[in-house]
Amino acid sequence: MSAPEATVAELTERLLAGDRRALARAISLVENDEPAGWELVREVYPRTGRAVVMGFTGPPGVGKSTLIGALVKNARTRSREVGVLSIDPSSPFTHGALLGDRIRLTEHFLDPGVFIRSMASRGSLGGLSEAALQAALLMDAAGRDDVFLETVGVGQAEVDIIDHADTVVLVLMPGSGDSVQALKAGVMEIPDVIVINKADHPLTDTMVREVRGVLSLGPQEGWRVPIVRTEAGRGEGVEELVGVLAEHRAHIEAEGTLEERRRRNLMNEVLAIATFRLRRRLEEWVSEDAGVQELLDEVVARRLDPASAAKRLLEREP
Ligand SMILES: Nc1nc2c(ncn2[C@@H]2O[C@H](COP(=O)(O)OP(=O)(O)OP(=O)(O)O)[C@@H](O)[C@H]2O)c(=O)[nH]1
Ligand SMILES: [Mg+2]
Q1: What's this model's pTM, rounded to 2 decimal places?
Q2: Is 208 in contact with 201 (CB distance < 8 Å)?
């Protein structure tokens, strides 16, 4: 059901003015796959691209949320308006106590300069990653200066919303050996910044050495991936991390990489949505068309190979 024209227009206006309730409502619309949500994104899209988007990924429990909490606190001392989007593909829960528990930003819940949201369900436009991107765009349009994205990543099949961050931070802790192996094997992409959190742990130096070893195998020109030690709970190293994030930002702006990255990511997004729609269209058609069923019978009877059948399918597509 589409919301009445006036409602979307009104919501758009309030959203652009930075109204938090409008932002919350807009994200719900997108999350629930309401046409009004997509309409809203279409309206505000020209006003996006201003926020600094930082993505934090890493194995469960390494302290991503605690770290984001510390960074939010720091950003607030600089009067920056903040949005936090925690994306959890494994959890069916999105609200209430679990949200607070997962995001660990309870001290910021009452600060109007901080907007926190957790997302787990998928919109129909291809999935959680697409819905999350729309939510991030809405935060951007609502005037959030900094947007922090959090996703759990262990190497494979990561939610690729993290690709939409201008700066990607991989958070590890002493003992995250699997992630180091994943980096080494090229399963996990090399991030822009690596944080070794829980630096109060005695094995921190070993971990830093291992990570440094992996990075030394990679390209040595251009941006050198910094390794920052933090103790997020106590705020140790957070100031340094803020500095490193700013340096990376300045670097990609100066090199033109920011533009390039955004271009590549948006292209991937367009392709992802188009692919999803195309597939849905094909599936509907295939299930309804008798001719396609016959084509399939030919494949089953081994008279036609799958690739030739696909070619004919595409030639005949309505
Ligand atoms: N010792 C120690 N514990 C920490 C540190 N930072 C965070 N923790 C604790 O580690 C636990 C997990 O922290 P979270 O911030 O929830 O970790 P996360 O990576 O967001 O976890 P998920 O979102 O569940 O993947 C909590 O009990 C934190 O209090 C630190 O620097 N040192
Ligand atoms: Mg977390």
Answers
A1: 0.88
A2: no
